[in-house]
Design goal:
Belongs to the RbfA family. Monomer. Binds 30S ribosomal subunits, but not 50S ribosomal subunits or 70S ribosomes. Its main location: cytoplasm. Keywords: Cytoplasm, Ribosome biogenesis. It comes from Halorhodospira halochloris. The protein has a three-stranded mixed beta sheet with strand order 1-2-3, covered by helices on one side. It has four helices and three strands; from the N terminus they run αββααβα. It is 59% helix and 17% strand. α1 crosses α3. The mean pLDDT is 83. It folds into two domains: 93 residues, 2-Layer Sandwich (GMP Synthetase, Chain A, domain 3), CATH 3.30.300.20; 35 residues. By secondary structure, the protein is α+β, with helices and mostly antiparallel strands.
Amino acid sequence: MAKDYPRSRRMAEQIRRELDEVIREDVDDPRVGSVTLSEVQVSRDLGQAHIYVSVLGAQAEEVESCVEVLNQAHGFLRTRVAKKIRSKRMPQLRFVHDTAFDRAARLSAIIDEVAPQSESQAESDVDSEASKE
């Protein structure tokens, strides 16, 4: 794993904060609904920024459409964010669908499905041991 550098970490946080504001105020495309910028990773040389995006309550196709719109508007977004951040270099922006929330939701659903089965199994084990005594 690459070493984390404070400068790139600071830049990532500034980009996330300012980009969130720019998307909410300046992007009027309906495909960019309730976008959440879950993480921004900036390369060590500050040349690239990967922005991980999730859209609450959206299907996979809608999320991909949203990511595509954001990637098409990367020049506009980069210019707007650069005006707010004081830096000699503004990284190129690349938007990526963040699947962590989807994986967490699937895992939670699996756990919720298995939990009642294990509870009923535990109850039947207790009942069988009680009847042996």
